[in-house]
Write the structure tokens for this entry.
Amino acid sequence: MKVGFIGLGGMGSGMAHNLRRAGHELVVHDLNRASGTPLEEAGATWSDSVADLARSVDVVFTSLPGPVEMRQVGLGKEGLLSALRPGSVWFDLTTNSPAVVREVHEASRKHDIELFDAPVSGGPKGARSGKLAIYVGGDRQAFDRHGAVLDAIGDQVLHVGEIGAGNTAKLVHNCGSMIIRMAISEVFTLGVKAGVEPAALWHAMRQGAIGRSRTFDRVGDRYLQEAFDPPSFALLLADKDLRLALELAEQLDVPMRSAQLVREDFQEALERGWGGRDSQTPLLLQNERAGVAIKLSPDEVRAVLDQG
């Protein structure tokens, strides 16, 4: 298969190299001409423009800074849609706006081009090693026909829904990761300021119940199933522990803004009479605010976990 790759930065370069190693005939382009040299040495061909590249390939990948650049590369003068042959496939690896992806997808369909939004997670190291999650949005039947090429660049290729769903999943993942990291830094500063050595504290945290589990897996047993009764750890007890932590933070003058927000939700849940339910019960408040219903069966949860 003849594959084009546009955008040879920290992520794109590693993914392009892996496509070449997989045996694909590769054509590359970037605004920085020098970025193509290592790939040429590996057997790829350089193209001087987006349009010239598009005319010569069956599948094109773009790995760009953001929505503005992706729209320009696709829809601009001498962009991809001006030159790709009907029936070609475009995987946009950019972390992008779902709205922009849908806009470009509509334009692509008019040119008989199949666009997938396929943002990746794993960082430059993962891009080089092939240890990447790829969140794919687009037509399922088209994905089944063309998605195998993604195996060259990622070890977790996940079709998550229609066009735009890939970036929705990526943005949800990243937002959650940022909040969790801030929460970890918040409680870590509390422990260190209270006198625990950082290495000892980190070791202790990693051996606890959450530390031994994949962080996102913990919501599967309670929250995603709305299974709060009987509790494994009652909200009333959890609130007591949180209150004690905040009291210690106040004593030590450690800001705990995220924890304060969590406490507000705990208090609202307690006022509703949920103190005897599981400590994950306050997560229902977010469901209410967002106006969504979330409930998986135990079999559905198990099926997701069995995927690894």
